[in-house]
Amino acid sequence: MRARIPMSTERGIHLLPPHEMLSTTLRPISPPGTDIHTGFAWLGHGAMISRTRASEFLQLMNEYSTDEQLKMADNYYTILANRIPEVWFDQGIPLGGGEAFTVGSEGDERNESYIVSP
After folding, report:
1. How far apart are CA 100 and CA 118, in angstroms?
2. If we measure between CA atoms, which residue out of 24, 28, 4 comes closest to residue 16?
3. What is the pLDDT of residue 26?
4. Which of 2, 16, 27, 78 sits CB 3.0–4.6 Å from 21 for a disulfide?
């Protein structure tokens, strides 16, 4: 990743488990005749992004989002970046950070509300 990041500073590199990588690879959005170029990849599985991009994103989120949306910030990063993310398979090695924020019925309900909300 360290050797590749200078060539991918605009998009960053996102690590995803196989099922997430497949769905991310299959659903980028870039409608013809628009300047929209986006896809989805969580930051939570591991990512290398530039400090500049991270600062710009946090500034945008702090200016326009609610406190609740800030808690879900990793869901917004690649969508708001207007760049199709570069994704790699992760190695499935847990980092010992506990259970993911969106696991279980509470996580399912939270995700549902963000997907359905206007």
Report:
1. 25
2. 24
3. 83
4. 16
Report pTM: 0.70
CA atoms within 13 A on the CB side of 74: 16
Structure tokens at 58: 């946090």
List CB contacts of 107: < 8 A, sequence separation 6 or more: 100, 101
Q: For residue 29, what are the β-bridge partners?
A: 38
pLDDT tens, per residue, the chain with 118 residues:
778 777 777 778 888 888 888 888 888 888 899 988 887 887 777 888 888 888 999 999 999 888 878 877 877 888 888 888 888 888 777 666 666 666 678 777 876 776 666 5
The three state secondary structure string of the chain is CCCCHHHCCCCCEEEECHHHHHHHHHCCECCCCCCCCECCCCCCCCEECCHHHHHHHHHHHHHHCCHHHHHCHHHCHHHHHCCCCEEEECCCCCCCCCCCCCCHHHHHHHHHHHHHCC
